[in-house]
């Protein structure tokens, strides 16, 4: 039988380990400061954020992790450590779809850590503007949801933006019914973003039949409105419940259990290849027979896996479309480079929106 260790002894061990952790964390921070000094001496200016390097570090942590701490938990700890170290130079300024309490803010913290300066912006268009004008170094925008499909505003904005996709992050979306009341009784109206209302359509029909559902600019705004009237409710995340002092009337009311939203990070960086990357492109063919075949053929020729394709009106001619495509690999990879070169010769326009590390956490 394994002997029981006295609680006082265990606490002494924890205190000693905590002291070692603190010393090592600060040694790492000192190294991060030296990295910044070396980069400045070598002429590197601007942001020292390197999404490719951070992705490699987090993957290595997950590979080295012996447990019992889970890989995801270990990666999150190091994500926050890297965020804090980077902020010693200057916190990154990142625009997200506000106000505070949205899934976009949650995605921002998941990708960059909590040491960033997160700046709420009211629309996707204005997030692009904030980064294009240099007001923020990066932006986080939703691009697709596993239940409701693509976010058209994001795709359309890429048609005339010089920004690159620098990274991606996925958020498992759990929708909750929030309000000042304790039950479904007496709810006269439900507020939420149109995407969230769509993701909870079946639940709302079954549990609140006949109750008006009103689309607003964000789930956080829905929670704010619900906090002003005891007969109103909101569909939002648990962070919004805390921010606006609302009760969680019902948890996880989304119709699909695996409901996930994919966000992308936009900026001016062009991450280098990490070995586990994606490349996003924008292609225009004109209204011609066999156009889609000419798009797909180079990827098949060079063995490139295509993970997503979406068409949008080009707004340049009747029945003309552009295609947004995600493929496996980095534009610097030999086969990807060959496929893109062949594709460019076969289409009216090719725009590489970015090559970036696949989401790690």
Automatic annotation (TrEMBL):
Signal peptide: none annotated. Residues 93-268 form the Prephenate dehydratase domain. Its EC number is 4.2.1.51, 5.4.99.5. GO terms for molecular function: prephenate dehydratase activity. CDD domains: ACT_CM-PDT, PBP2_PDT_1. The keyword Plastid does not apply. Residues 1-93 form the Chorismate mutase domain. It is found in: Cytoplasm. Pfam families: ACT, CM_2, PDT. Pathway: Metabolic intermediate biosynthesis; prephenate biosynthesis; prephenate from chorismate: step 1/1; Amino-acid biosynthesis; L-phenylalanine biosynthesis; phenylpyruvate from prephenate: step 1/1. It catalyses: prephenate + H(+) = 3-phenylpyruvate + CO2 + H2O; chorismate = prephenate. Residues 280-357 form the ACT domain. Keywords: Amino-acid biosynthesis, Aromatic amino acid biosynthesis, Cytoplasm, Isomerase, Lyase, Multifunctional enzyme, Phenylalanine biosynthesis. PROSITE patterns: ACT (PS51671), CHORISMATE_MUT_2 (PS51168), PREPHENATE_DEHYDR_1 (PS00857), PREPHENATE_DEHYDR_3 (PS51171). Catalyzes the Claisen rearrangement of chorismate to prephenate and the decarboxylation/dehydration of prephenate to phenylpyruvate. PANTHER family: PREPHENATE DEHYDRATASE P PROTEIN, PREPHENATE DEHYDRATASE-RELATED. This is Bifunctional chorismate mutase/prephenate dehydratase. The gene is pheA.
């Amino acid at each position: 039988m394994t002997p029981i260790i006295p609680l006082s002894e265990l606490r002494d061990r924890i205190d000693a380990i905590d002291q070692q952790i603190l010393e090592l964390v600060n040694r790492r921070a000192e190294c991060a400061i030296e990295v910044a000094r070396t980069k400045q001496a070598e002429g590197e200016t601007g942001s020292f954020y390197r999404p490719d390097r951070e992705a490699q570090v987090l993957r290595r942590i997950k590979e080295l992790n012996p447990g019992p701490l889970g890989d995801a938990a270990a990666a999150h700890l190091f994500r926050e450590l890297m965020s804090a170290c980077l902020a010693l130079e200057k916190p990154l300024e990142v625009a997200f779809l506000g106000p505070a309490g949205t899934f976009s803010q949650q995605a921002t913290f998941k990708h960059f850590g909590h040491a960033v300066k997160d700046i709420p912006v009211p629309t996707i268009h204005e997030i692009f503007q904030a980064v294009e004008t240099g007001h923020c170094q990066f932006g986080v925008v939703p691009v697709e949801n596993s239940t409701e499909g693509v976010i058209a505003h994001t795709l359309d904005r890429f048609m005339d933006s010089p920004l690159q996709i620098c990274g991606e992050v996925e958020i498992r979306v759990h929708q909750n019914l929030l309000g000042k009341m304790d039950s479904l009784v007496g709810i006269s109206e439900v507020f939420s973003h149109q995407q969230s209302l769509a993701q909870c359509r079946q639940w709302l029909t079954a549990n609140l039949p006949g109750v008006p559902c009103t689309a607003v600019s964000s789930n956080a705004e829905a929670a704010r409105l619900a906090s002003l009237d005891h007969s109103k409710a909101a569909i939002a995340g648990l962070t919004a419940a805390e921010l606006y002092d609302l009760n969680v009337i019902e948890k996880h009311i989304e119709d699909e259990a695996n409901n996930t939203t994919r966000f992308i990070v936009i900026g001016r960086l062009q991450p280098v290849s990490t070995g586990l990357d994606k490349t996003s492109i924008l292609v225009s063919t004109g209204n011609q027979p066999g156009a889609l075949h000419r798009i797909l053929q180079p990827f098949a020729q060079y063995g490139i896996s295509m993970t997503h394709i979406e068409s949008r009106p080009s707004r340049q001619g009747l029945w003309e479309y552009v295609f947004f495509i995600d493929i496996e690999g980095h534009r610097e990879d030999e086969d990807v480079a060959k496929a893109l070169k062949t594709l460019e010769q076969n289409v009216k326009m090719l725009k590489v929106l970015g090559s970036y590390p696949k989401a790690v956490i």
